[in-house]
Automatic annotation (TrEMBL):
Gene3D superfamilies, A to Z: PRC-barrel domain, RimM
Known function: An accessory protein needed during the final step in the assembly of 30S ribosomal subunit, possibly for assembly of the head region. Essential for efficient processing of 16S rRNA. May be needed both before and after RbfA during the maturation of 16S rRNA. It has affinity for free ribosomal 30S subunits but not for 70S ribosomes.
NCBIfam families: 16S_RimM (TIGR02273)
Recorded name of the encoding gene: rimM
One example of a Gene Ontology biological process annotation: ribosomal small subunit biogenesis
Full protein name: Ribosome maturation factor RimM
Source organism (scientific name): Breznakibacter xylanolyticus
Upper classification of the organism: Bacteria, Pseudomonadati, Bacteroidota, Bacteroidia, Marinilabiliales
């Protein structure tokens, strides 16, 4: 059995699409449909992760993932999967050079080189492929672009992301 601790939650099936068993998966913020290239997705059914073979997948215009699972051939069967969480094995997402996917940073404390602790990353938004961290802290909500040039380092054990925000950006929120 696949353990959730070895997997990453990527989204939720929202509904059936069409009459041939295809489903729509709303992906979590920070996860791009193009990053999901695995043959199997794991559905959280009755408290356990059940593998489903991906027969075909495509990206919808709004960034959702359309998937046709092997064995799900009718609209009725697809509708039964609505609201089911979807997972991938931990190493299935496309990662950057350091082996990190930005969605793995949710919950990390962000420390800026000039302003110190900003707060924790609560979400990663991707408006039209220009992702940014949503940081919640003492100054309220702070938005910082997800870009290598602003990231100084990462302490994975302590869950801390070190950044140097663009000049003047943090001052806009203070």
């Amino acid at each position: 059995m696949i353990e959730k601790s070895n997997c990453q939650h990527i989204g939720v099936i929202t509904k059936a699409h069409g009459v041939s068993g295809e489903v729509v998966i709303r992906l979590n913020n920070g996860i791009d449909a193009q990053d999901i290239t695995c043959d199997f997705l794991f559905l959280d059914l009755d408290g356990g992760l059940v593998p489903f073979y991906v027969q075909e997948s495509r990206t919808r215009g709004d960034g959702a993932l359309m998937v046709h699972f092997d064995g799900i051939t009718t609209e009725v069967a697809a509708r039964r999967l609505a609201d089911v969480p979807v997972w991938v094995e931990g190493d299935e997402l496309e990662m950057d050079e350091e082996g990190i996917h930005s969605s793995m940073l949710i919950g990390f404390l962000v420390v800026d080189s000039e302003h110190g602790e900003l707060g924790k990353i609560i979400e990663i938004r991707d408006p039209e492929r220009n992702p940014y961290f949503v940081i919640e802290g003492g100054a309220g909500e702070i938005l910082v672009p997800v870009a290598d040039e602003y990231i100084d380092g990462l302490d994975d054990d302590k869950h801390i992301l070190y950044i140097t925000a663009p000049e003047g950006l943090i001052d806009l929120y203070l």
